## 1
Amino acid sequence: MKIIVPSAGPVPDQRTAGYVINIAKRLNAQLVVLRVLMEKETEAVGEQSLSLFIEKGKKEKVPVIGILRRGDIASVIIEVAEEKSVDLIILGVSRGEIVAEWLNAEAMEKTDIPVLIIPKWVPPADRS
């Protein structure tokens, strides 16, 4: 099984990363972490964002592939999900954030891959 999780911002939330790594571990899945760079962001910023997932994956023995791309967020998520033949898309959502603002509902209709929404205020998932 393969799971893709897009990472937004230069530093992903540690609780969300831990929660996603725990899901991948329990499902014996490979995790594809996608960082879509904004127009003026450097690759170094993107690599920093990916490193949290990669480090947590190593610690928990979860295989993690980090990918940097540029482009429209929703389109890139779907493109990479299809390229990597993922089985599940996991999205983190902040309080008050409407999913349609981050990944518009139209994009979710363009793929048959299931989408799981994880609130960013989930409790830590460092338990086995």
Note: Strands lie at 2-7, 30-37, 64-70, 88-93, 115-119.
## 2
Amino acid sequence: MRAVDALTSTKPQGHRPAKTSRIELRASEDDRNLLDRAAAALGTDRSSFLLAQGRLAAQRVLADREHFLLDTAGQQEWERINNRPARSLPGLVRLLERPSPFGNPAADAPQA
């Protein structure tokens, strides 16, 4: 299992959805020149470069919120913890049995 797997698209190679949305941003001349040089070094244009690099950055930011990458020992520990029987939490049971402070008191009352 590689960290890169979580950051790559699940869409088939060569699949390119229609670009129907426009993104605009302001940059200093120095930033624009730097971006243009980097895009040229990769043999692409500024828009394609920014979109590809922005997509990678967004996937990295969201990766730990969407994917869990564990080695074998970590996965076994995860499974051990999740397979334990649920504990009884009397305080939580009492809290959940109380009427909601946000609802209609008549609607929250037990029905006979």
Note: The chain is about 55% helix and 0% strand.
## 3
Amino acid sequence: MKINIFNELDIDLSNYEKTLKKVFKPIKDKKNINLILTSDERIHTLNKTFRNVDRPTDVLSFINDEDKDSNGDIFISIPKMKRQAVEYGHSEDREISFLAVHGYLHLIGFDHENEEDEKIMNYETERILSLAKLERKKE
């Protein structure tokens, strides 16, 4: 799978780019994805426009029906990701990877609208992250 990463911020995010490419490397998918690393303000606008939710979020996924070679676009708020990494007590690499994989799974049909679907999606997320040695810290 080809990963296209777009940095919309005026900061160096190359360390995250390396991590994200490593996370998706074992996934065998012929379609590519676009990862857009963005601000709280931009993701807030997207969340309000497309989901009618008037607040920033951590990750949003949009299927791209017009490009047969693409699964779609995943927007990740870098400031929110950094706050969540501190809040959850794990690395920024773990958090950005979790958000990217979560977004990717939405693009390919996973959801968490009910408890059973959430268990399945969480299992698949953790399975992919474990391949990149980014497991959740044991308590």
Note: The two ends are 34 Å apart (CA to CA).
